[in-house]
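Ligand-bound model needed. pyridoxal-5'-phosphate.
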Amino acid sequence: MSQQHPENLEVIAANLQEVKQRMQAAHQRRRCEGREPTLLAVTKYAEPDWIEALYQLGERDFGESRPQQLASRNEHYSANNGWNDLRWHLIGQLQRNKVKAIIGKTSCIHSVNSLRLLQQIARHAADQQLPTRVLLQINISGEQAKQGFGSEEILAISKQLGSSKYFSICGLMTMAPKNQENDAIRAVFRDLRELRDKLQQQVPEQTFLSELSMGMSHDYEIAIEEGATIVRIGSELFQSCTSESNND
Ligand SMILES: *Cc1c(COP(=O)(O)O)cnc(C)c1O
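Prediction:
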């Protein structure tokens, strides 16, 4: 354990409680349709003791954007070191030459943004016989700078979205545009859900697109109202935490 700042546990406990209450309220506004959404704690900027506080508070799903940091944290927080059942999700861009190193270390790759990457992951998962779950990242808003498949593009390759023994495509992921009105954000999340429903009709029959990974600190309530099953939250969980580099 690295509890250099014991007050962080209290701060994070309060933040977590607030986020969970808001998640629950949003789920109720959706009339509790579907299962309760999963909170994915995004730890890309988190210090080890913040992660450990969340673990102590019962959280098990953690998201990292850099494959290398995911791999090293996966190794550090292992059963051998007394940490059980942490699930690491990759939410940032993955290059094809990093696939081999990440297979088996992640519970789910949310950021599959090309057919070549998808095929590379499927091949390595089969070769190494390590079950691998992925989500397809979709660029709903069509912004040039955004990663992901276009809606038309993914529908056009739907027949190639098969799952296999060691490889499962479990759903879709998106990011809403920044600095937009709530209505525009809501439209993006609704479009993702509708795209999923349409795509589900077309994909090979062993593929079940049950997950919708959408919503971050500033828009997760809207995402849940529109059917998110996973929300990815960083800054909201760690606000007011004391960092190593700060001197008290
Ligand atoms: C950083 C990040 C998040 C979390 O963002 P916050 O605004 O800190 O909640 C969610 N999803 C992705 C893909 C990210 O890179």
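The first strand starts at residue 38 and ends at 42.
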